[in-house]
Amino acid sequence: DIQMTQSPSSLSASVGDRVTIPCRASQSISYYLNWYQQQPGKAPKLLIYAASNLQSGVPSRFSGSGSGTDFTLTITSLQPEDFATYYCQQNYMTPWTFGLGTKVEIK
Amino acid sequence: QVTLKESGPVLVKPTETLTLTCTVSGFSLSNARMGVSWIRQPPGKALEWLAHIFSNDEKSYTTSLKSRLTISKDTSKSQVVLTMTNMAPVDTATYYCARRTTIAASGLYYYYAMDVWGQGTTVTVSS
């Protein structure tokens, strides 16, 4: 199975900060990487698909980059509603797998 | 409007079989571009993908739970059913269903994502 590693598991940031969240796959997954945001008590929400494509309706302060094994989610100018947990997920092959998440907390 | 809604028991006893139903609306389970996955999340922990059923009825399961899971669908009822046998306290979690769709195409390459999720249903395993 492909392992998805997200480190750190949490980070602290302030409103207005630029935040980068890394994700690494245990083998090459090309561009088959999605990012989800989960706010407390809610279902996950698709943010980025195919590594760098913004899902409809998602603010442009979110962006994704990377290919192969290394990927990054970037949030420019962090907003109060962005404090949440972010998961990467590979779609390259089954079983599809999620990372353990990175929680963005208020500094 | 696309929606998915999970239903099933709130409490199950150890060793029992869990049956969860995902009722979808706004799309057809026979649509070749779409399928439905089940994902779970134990309290305070990460998301775990469990199983998926494709439009052609092909199924896929997570490796660690494959022997305990069965996914099926009833297209006429717009429902996807997940059964998990031999439940244990470690299976206590919120269980989500999500639509997986072809979200983009580039030449010969197709990209997929779970673009719409249900609200989740919480299942506790306890005697």
List keywords for this structure.
heterodimer; A: about 110 residues; mainly beta; seven-stranded mixed β-sheet; four-stranded antiparallel β-sheet; globular; B: about 130 residues; 11 strands
Annotate the secondary structure layout.
The complex is a heterodimer of chains A (107) and B (127).
Chain A: E1 4-5, E2 10-13, E3 19-25, E4 33-38, E5 45-49, E6 53-54, E7 62-67, E8 70-75, E9 85-90, E10 97-98, E11 102-106
Parallel strand pairs in A: 2-11
Antiparallel strand pairs in A: 1-3, 3-8, 4-5, 4-9, 5-6, 7-8, 9-10, 9-11
Chain B: E1 3-7, E2 11-12, E3 18-25, E4 34-41, E5 48-53, E6 59-61, E7 69-74, E8 79-84, E9 93-106, E10 109-117, E11 121-125
Parallel strand pairs in B: 2-11
Antiparallel strand pairs in B: 1-3, 3-8, 4-5, 4-9, 5-6, 7-8, 9-10, 9-11
Low-confidence stretches of chain A: none
Main beta sheet of chain A = 7 strands, mixed
Largest sheet of chain B: 7 strands, mixed
Helix content of chain B: under 10%
Number of strands of chain A: 11
Beta-strand portion of chain B reads over 45%
According to DSSP, the number of beta strands of chain B is: 11
Distance between the termini of chain A: 36 Å
Instruction: State the order of secondary-structure elements of chain B, H for helix, E for strand.
Output: EEEEEEEEEEE
Question: What is the averaged pLDDT score of chain A?
Answer: 97
- Indicate the structural class of chain B: mainly beta
Radius of gyration of chain B: 15 Å
What percent of the residues of chain A sit in helical stretches (DSSP H or I)? under 10%
Number of helical segments with 4 or more residues of chain B: 0
Shape of chain B: globular
Report the radius of gyration of chain A as a whole number of Å: 13 Å
